Every structure is written in C-alpha cells, then in structure tokens.
C-alpha cells in the first residue's frame, strides 16, 4: 500500500483543524497526535517519508532553494545596509526561493523586533520569493516544550505588527528518533503549524537542523532537514551517508557548508551543488567561504554572488 501525499496532507489538515485550541497547547497537540496512527497504521512510517519525498521530487516546481542563516545584525545606518546583499539577490533572481532565518537573539527576543529588524523584515516581505523562518533551538530535544511554544508564540505575535514569520527553523534538532524525541518534535511541529496557519499567512515551512543525517521518520514532520552543517574540508572527508532507499529524501534535505576555498566561479558552484545529490536535486543549500569559527554566517562571503548565480543556473 502506498500512501499518497494528498491523503497525508488531508489527514494532517484535519488534525490541525480539530486542534486549534488557544489554551493548553500541549494537550491539544497530544490529542491530535493520538488520532494520527489510525489512517496510516498499515504503512511503515519510513515508507511514508520516502513516498512523500518522491512525490515532492516529481513536482515540476521543486527547485533547489537557498537557506540563508541571516545571523548578521541588519544595520540600516551603514552604506550599504547590512542586508543589502539579500535584497539585491532576491531582486536579481526572482526564480530562486530564499529561506531566510530571522534570529534576533538566539530566538525572537522581545514581543516586537527592534526597529532595525522591523525595517529589514518589511523590506524582505516585498519579495514574493523570500520565505521568513523564525529561529528556535531545541537543545537536541531537551529544551522544555513550553519554552519552545513561547518562542513560536512570540514569532506568531509579530504578525499583528506586520512582521509575521512564514515558518520555523528548529536548530539543534535531534537526529535519533526515539519515541520520546519523535513525539517531542511532532508536538512542537504541529503546534507551530497550527499557530502559523491560524494567522492566515499560508502553509508554514518547517526546517529541522540536526546538522547530520537524521532518522528518515523525521521527514514526515519537516519540510527540510539539514543533513550537514560543517566546513568544506569536513564535507570532503565525511560526506553524509544515507541508508539504502532513504537517499530519495534528498529533495527535502539541506546542506550548510562554510569555510570553502575562495575563488569559486558560478559554474563551479553549480557543479558542486549538483554533486551533493548526485544530480538528483537537493532541497536547499547554503555555501560560503566565511570561516569564522564563532559565527561563519556573520558576514556575506566574497563568493555570495557566485553562489546565488550558481543556484539559479540549476533551474535552466
């Protein structure tokens, strides 16, 4: 038996609609999850993940996106503004989707983003090819659910001020799928989806970032999973290994590689990105020559323009 993406989507939407309860989010999500096994109990969850990836991969609109960890304060008083390279790239390459991680303070920080973030978010929202993701860390699945819910609720609260997020980037996500960890990630993912859907922004985009290959079952929860986050040298010596069959989830996988050798051309970028998935198409990617060990995402690398052009070239 093969479960179609349409059936899975219908099931999830039904669950979300029945669990839109403003109070006691943990109980509401738990009640929703308790209903999940009924329609899919005869199908191995690993097969659901692979089937879902295959259907997404076959979509004509499925293209490699850019995941941008915008861990740079968006100063507008500088010339040019600190985030000008993002604005320029989004304008120059309207066919490329940019998933931009918003991370004011290892999370949302206050109930409202400060004035600089307000300016930057407002500018980014003008681009239809930009998707804004709120940064939330899970401490490898040990952070309290209530703390995670609070971060999500804060990001959702920004919507009324015009700064709403369109998804969540779960950093420090677990790679192992024990019963406890899987249920934890399912709870916080369902909560994020129901909260974002309720704002009317649209279907949310969810990332998990374990920084390594994760249990394939997590692909039933996340839209993208970051299967590698490290230096270019580390990638060459420790290329991610997928279990037989599960490499089909590549179109929903992400690579974040920093400390790359300088001087890459657009053609070389395209070739390398294609090689990440053996030519089958990776879900999203971020490459940079920056090598600051404390924050390799703290500036735009000298190869930013070639990188973006390299991703765009894969569309043609």
Automatic annotation (TrEMBL):
<dbReference type="Pfam" id="PF12138">
    <property type="entry name" value="Spherulin4"/>
</dbReference>
<keyword id="KW-0732">Signal</keyword>
<dbReference type="InterPro" id="IPR021986">
    <property type="entry name" value="Spherulin4"/>
</dbReference>
<feature type="signal peptide">
    <location>
        <begin position="1"/>
        <end position="23"/>
    </location>
</feature>
<protein>
    <recommendedName>
        <fullName>Spherulin 4-like cell surface protein</fullName>
    </recommendedName>
</protein>
